[in-house]
Amino acid sequence: MSLHKARIKAFEDILEQDVIDFEVLQKLAFNGVPDDKGLRSLVWRILLHYLPKEKSARESTLKKKRQLYKQFIDEIIVSPGGPTDHPLNISPDSSWCTYFKDNEVLLQIDKDVRRLCPDISFFQSATEFPCPEIVNSNGVKRLHKRVEQSVLKYSTLERRGLGVAKLSNEIRRSDSITSGDYAPLNEGCEAHWEVVERMLFLYAKLNPGQGYVQGMNEIIGPIYHTFAIDTNKEYRQHAEADCFFCFTNLMAEIRDFFIRTLDETESGINYMMCKLSDCVKKNDRAVWDQLERQELRPQYYSFRWLTLLLSQEFSLPDVERIWDSLFADTQRFDFLIFICCAMILLVRQNLLNGDFASNVKLLQNFPPMDVSLILNKAVEISNR
Description:
The protein is an all-alpha fold. It is 63% helix and 0% strand.
């Protein structure tokens, strides 16, 4: 039996257990989940604590969660009731006030999802399972329609000192909505980016304390892609609902990266950047000294690496392979620090020979590299 087939068999065996040995699954997934037979999709659902370890409880969990998601769509998007009072009512409880605030969030989401993973055609293509209540509504229930129609309305009606510059910016945005960005599909069809837009809008509505923060689109994209290309038709059909809950669980773990007031706490982004700097110092003093001398702070390059779990630095297949290890990490997200450190150490010669400008450029546009090299180096660092 080939090594690849043996790995597939090892995953199949553990997933067939009545109660999955979570630690064994973590160890196995840490070294990469095969692309075959929808294995990654199922393993991620378990590692992200969406599916229970008990095989007998999976079906009822899925049924309950998928039903709940359908309810969210119905209550928040399909029939939310719409604004009922006067558009100029300035009361914070005004339904128009809520509508405009929602549209502000929606405008940002719409802008972000239309540019998701532009190097592949997946997000522009049609889903085989569009949401019927939305795609057969003559455009009325489509979220992007709401933004296109309301771009000028909310800019002029919301009294927040929005000047001419802001308004003209919104007008320009509405003109460019179909140029260079992904275009919406016709009645009855729905592109994958529209599905992602819906999930992010629901997430923002259901998590008002945090809402939507730019970059969340880059976190949800690889999860949705993995689920939507599953070989199992039933899992593909419910990719949206399953992805929504997996994303929600992941965000509960990394939300502190996105909340500025928590920057300094142990789970905040500044703390993570300090940990990365200490890791470089411990593993390669010469490189650390060079970066210190040049005052090349981790904020200049690693903010994006850490916040977005490296989703912007590599191609989608490589990101998915890296995330196998991150999701399987028993000390989530310690291994992320080791990966980032490995990336820096693997370009050490360039860094030692480069000036400030070339080194910033190198780290902000990390060169293409075999991802297994980086992961092996990260493991080596973690064992020191």
